[in-house]
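User: Just a sanity check before I run the rest of the batch. Below are the C-alpha cells for the first item. I only need the designed sequence back.
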C-alpha cells in the first residue's frame, strides 16, 4: 500500500517468507538448504527495498501477517500509523497558523 501524499509505504509481510521472529517465521525442517537460500534471498530483497525507500525519505511501515489475526491488533497498528502520519501534518499546520 503506497500513500504517496505522505511519502509512506505500508507493507504487509508474510511471516514465513519474510522470516519473522514469530513461530510462523521459522524455516521448515526439511530441504534446509533450499529454504535457507530462498528465504535469505527474500530477506536481502526486503532490506534493499527498505533502504532505497528510506534513502528517498519514504517512511516504511511493516505489518506482519501474524498481527493481522485479530481485528483489534490491526486497529492498533492502523491507529499507530495514522497518528504517526497525521501527527506530522498537524504540527506543521499549527506552526503556520500560530505565526499570523
Ligand atoms: Zn509473524
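Assistant: Here's the designed sequence for the first item:
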Amino acid at each position: 500500500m503506497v500513500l504517496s501524499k505522505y511519502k509512506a509505504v505500508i507493507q504487509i509481510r508474510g511471516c514465513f517468507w519474510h522470516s519473522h521472529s514469530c513461530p510462523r517465521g521459522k524455516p521448515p525442517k526439511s530441504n534446509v538448504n533450499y529454504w535457507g537460500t530462498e528465504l535469505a534471498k527474500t530477506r536481502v530483497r526486503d532490506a534493499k527495498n527498505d533502504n532505497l525507500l528510506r534513502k528517498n525519505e519514504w517512511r516504511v511501515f511493516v505489518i506482519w501477517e501474524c498481527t493481522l489475526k485479530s481485528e483489534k491488533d490491526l486497529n492498533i497498528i492502523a491507529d499507530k500509523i495514522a497518528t504517526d502520519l497525521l501527527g506530522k501534518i498537524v504540527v506543521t499546520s499549527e506552526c503556520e497558523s500560530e505565526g499570523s
